[in-house]
Amino acid sequence: MITKHHTKIYCLINEQEAQSTTDFIEGYRNCLYDNGITFNPLYVQSVTQDYSINSSILMGLTAPICFNESIATTLYHQATQKNLDVPRDLSIIALVDHQTSNSLSSHIATINTRLYQFGQYLAQDIIMEIERLQLSQDILLDEYTVSYAENIHLPSSKIVPKLLVVGSINMDTLIHVSEIPSTGITSIAQSSKNVIGGKGANQAVGIARLGLHVSLLGRVGRDQEGMLLYDLLLKEKVNLEHLIFDDSSGSGRAYVFVLPNGESSITVFLGANRNLSSKDINLHKNAFEHIEYCLLQTELSTDLVLYAAAYSKQFGVKTVLKPSNIQLTNLELLQYIDYFIPNEKEAERISGGLSSLEDQATYFRNLGVKTVIITLGEKGCYLQNSENSLYFGAMKFPVVDTTGAADAFISVFTSSLARGINLIKAIKIASYAGSFSITREGAQPGMLDKEAYENLLDNIDHMITVSSRNENQCIGL
């Protein structure tokens, strides 16, 4: 287990056999010590006579070693009931004797204690002592070996897909209004509050909540908002080693006017985001190493996004682009984009006014994009690549706030691809995520967590329609 980089290794013993497990625990402690791992007494757990196990130990556990096969079998069944995959999420080793056959050999590794052989050794030792003969060293036991060692996997922290978001980070002010303010008119807001925002931050949080490793490359001011943004992103488990504190500009801000129907209008002050440059990308070269996807948005300058996309390709990284404003001043960028995800208005404007979704997507693909997904709000989305031209429906949820629906879609879509899920299913899950996100106020509160995402995997195929024609179908829950 240690050679597979596990450090959260529990020792599970039978409380009825406490005396016989003393040496077992001591060996466990010594092994940890020899490998530089601190012994934690909380990691030694006793199970009851009926082999019931406190399910709380499954939280954070990656590699338990069980005193016998009964404990291991019970743990296996409890883990699967918690939707954990054994051995992908949990690598279990059980001690067994020579007569035990591992009924879960496709899931659990075993170590044969060879008690019968050890008994033979002791009996012969006694006989030799009585007859005053020297015990042959050839009778000594061989080294213990692990059977079904293929069931010991790397911990998820070592194999989880890694993604990078290069994008904006803002402090959003949500302002609820009855109508968008007009020139010369003073309007009264019903309420307002500050939340973390910016498409870069939103997408990074959406990915982190699904349990994937995501880094965020961006800038915040060295001000109160910047420190708050840092703390909030850190709590969301976003890797911030590539976050830059800007000494010359304050943190970015966005003012989001939310109408009663949930639609919104956004005004953005870029602040420190404006200073993110190609020099920053060069200085943080290691951010692009060993990642699978890089997510980009054009809230930053098109030239910077172009540089980041081309830079990603030097490392063989797949790129995802959300054009977050109508203008896309340098179409050369699209030749470096694997997944281009505009909304209806953006697709029409950037394509020069082409009216049909099919023509718009073809236009973008002719410029070098591999896959085009045009999001259609409550109507779903349209996919076009070299193999498919398909329309996807959407779920029907009550609208509270549409802010961040595209970020929810993109974070779930990219995370699904990174996990090895096929394109069609990834779009279905993303369509659900985008629809669900509008049921909460703000961009991030409505984003799926890992548990909700996992629950969707087996059911999503029956929830979202797919058609070769634009039927604009929605399905209610």
Automatic annotation (TrEMBL):
GO BP, sorted A to Z: D-ribose metabolic process
Record domain Transcriptional regulator LacI/GalR-like sensor: where: 2-126
Ranges of residues in domain Carbohydrate kinase PfkB: 162-446
Keyword list, A-Z: ATP-binding, Carbohydrate metabolism, DNA-binding, Kinase, Magnesium, Metal-binding, Nucleotide-binding, Potassium, Transcription, Transcription regulation, Transferase
Gene3D superfamilies: 3.40.1190.20, 3.40.50.2300
Gene Ontology molecular function: any one: ribokinase activity
Cited InterPro entries: Carboh/pur_kinase_PfkB_CS, LacI/GalR-like_sensor, Peripla_BP_I, PfkB_dom, Ribo/fructo_kinase, Ribokinase, Ribokinase-like
Protein's UniProt keywords contain Nucleotide-binding: yes
Enzyme Commission code: 2.7.1.15
HAMAP family cross-referenced by the UniProt entry: Ribokinase
Family affiliation: Belongs to the carbohydrate kinase PfkB family.
Name the UniProt record assigns to this protein: Ribokinase
Organism: bioreactor metagenome
Organism classification: unclassified sequences, metagenomes, ecological metagenomes
